[in-house]
């Protein structure tokens, strides 16, 4: 399993699981990720102090600058590859809860396609740092009403963020690091063609590199192999289709780029922790997804 690790204000390590961290909020200094990762949550970031975080979202480099807020579906492979921010707030909302909000179809489609919402600095809200800190406290509370209020406020903030960013493309990184440019080009090619038959040689050729050069460059930046990253991107699409459509599992496998149903079952069970049919049953939107009677557990250590 892939993990995401940040330190909080006390210096402790927060280590949420890939599947879903549950309703949780915290703050601290971000650490550059040594590998792309995924987890089935809507993730919110707020850069409260310092410089800029540079993410790769499904192949697109995106900057989240001082005072800016970002929201994205974290099942799409993403990686923090550079950072000069020194204080950031995070909130995770489980995927089922996010779907149960009934957000506009255009917004849901944008997020599930791997395109983040990122506010411009001029659209920043002066109350955001206080709000994020309050949400973290409330979501960690043992009082169900406090958690319910926090969740309502988070939903409202996401809706406001969508209004401020609707129709706007994600802000893209303009840096000139040659190695990063090459890897970004490979990841973008994967993001655009993962549904098709695709191999390492195809990906390297698309950016005019020899596979023997492309593979170590990719691993150096992304912390994983080209093949593993391609599989993760296909799994993100298959999870989206399982939850949001009634397509037969065989069609889900094909639409996600898996060449055979047996390969899909093996990759999905290994990467997601359960067979596709069980995952679909567990993640369908239901009234229970709105239950905030118990706080999410957080693994600290």
Overall description:
It is a single chain. The protein has 301 residues and is an alpha+beta fold. The chain is 43% helix and 19% strand. It has 2 domains: 6-165, Sandwich (Jelly Rolls); 178-283, Homeodomain-like (Arc Repressor Mutant, subunit A, Orthogonal Bundle), CATH 1.10.10. The protein is built from 11 helices and 8 strands. The longest helix has 22 residues, at 144-165. The relative contact order is 0.15. Residues 1-18, 170-174, 286-291 and 293-301 have low confidence and may be disordered.
Provide the descriptors you would attach to this structure in a database record.
2 domains; alpha+beta; 43% helix; Jelly Rolls; Arc Repressor Mutant, subunit A; 301 residues; eight-stranded antiparallel β-sheet
Can you give me a brief rundown of this structure?
Helices cover 43% and strands 19% of the residues. The protein has 301 residues and is an alpha+beta fold. The protein folds into two domains: 6-165, Jelly Rolls, CATH 2.60.120.280; 178-283, Arc Repressor Mutant, subunit A (Orthogonal Bundle), CATH 1.10.10.
Question: Could you name the CATH topology of the largest domain?
Answer: Jelly Rolls
Q: Which shape, going by the Cα principal axes?
A: globular
**Number of helical stretches of at least 4 residues:** 11
CATH superfamily of the largest domain: Regulatory protein AraC
> How would a crystallographer describe the biggest sheet?
8 strands, antiparallel
Low-confidence stretches: 1-18, 170-174, 286-291, 293-301
Class computed from helices, strands and strand pairing: alpha+beta
Q: How large a portion of the residues is in β-strands, by DSSP E?
A: 15-25%
Whole-number mean pLDDT:
80
Compressed to H and E, one letter per element, the order equals EEEEEEEHHEHHHHHHHHH
Total number of beta strands: 8
Rg, alpha carbons: 19 Å
Distance between the termini: 17 Å
CATH class term of the largest domain:
Mainly Beta
